[in-house]
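Researcher: I'd like a structural prediction for the single chain below. Treat it as a standalone chain; there are no partners to consider.
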Amino acid sequence: MTYAGPPAPRLFMGVMVSSTYADFLQHREALINGINGEGLHPIAMEHDSALPAGTVIDSSLQMVRDAAAYVGLIGTRYGNIPDSAEHNPERLSLTELEFREARELGRPILLFVMGLDHDVKERDVELDPEKRRKLAAFREDAKRSAADSRLHRVYKVFNSLSELEVAAARSMAKLRRFLDPQTGQLQAQVESGPAVYDRIPVPPALYAEPRYIGSHSFVGRTAHLARLSDWTAPAEAHPVLLFEAIGGTGKSMLTWEWTTRHAPGARDDWAGLFWYSFYEKGAIMADFCRRTLAYMTGRPLTTFQSKKQPELTELLTRQLQDRCWLLVLDGLERVLVAYHRYDAAQLADEQAGQTDEIARRDPSQAIRP
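Model: Treating it as a single chain, here is the predicted structure.
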């Protein structure tokens, strides 16, 4: 795999969670709880089976590159092998590809390996002879890698879910102490040199600015997920879909769930998928346009830094007319007049006697035209 820029993680303490999925639901939750408990951010790709193999690999490896550390679970299944002669000539599982990428990049690695005394359901035992051979080789390779004392590496064998929970909590605490000074060093490098850490994925891989971090696992909302998938159909007449509700009802979590797990398979002609949150500091429409254009065109973000909003709008419109892109604008109300000031609600109800310009404007208008 080749990609532009140095293999540096993004400037947030994200931890990649890598494993097979269906046989490790509770175990993954234990790891994610341990990560959250230390103020770190879990990065996990739960469902990518609907994507083309090359895209699945690109997306997974980009998550490893964006993360500050890697956590892997190895059990009794080898896992999905993306079928791609170009991207996976050795026919390795996605989990092993992610592990190798983390090792090559020198990321801190925490491995939790299921022991022989752990209860295993019959359906979770690997039966394919070739996969069994690869799983055994993967286990041995992981164990050898853990012996490298030059990096922060953890290798723990667990024989029950409760053992994993304890091991995860202790290991995440140590990882946090290890990462704290590392993050400070990265920040200093960014402030003193070129913004080489602001790498943008290559379409159609998802670009999230930033990734949404939920407070709990997503459940339900089947009708809303279906509504979003129906909207993406090529025959749908409306290119924009608006989800509007009061704060705290789960709009962001719903849209993130759909964008990451359902959108890739909803249609096969996505040019790319871009998530942008207006809840972040410094998030304005001009920044959204610049980042979107950098993602769409593959050009450096600095190319668009000096361009004003009218030109950015024209350039972005051309791209949207040319190909099918999914753009998710989370928290768009933050750029509207009605949400721009603490007294907006009162001003909206007072029609007479207003003297300042913003108070006289339609509350549905944008702050900056």
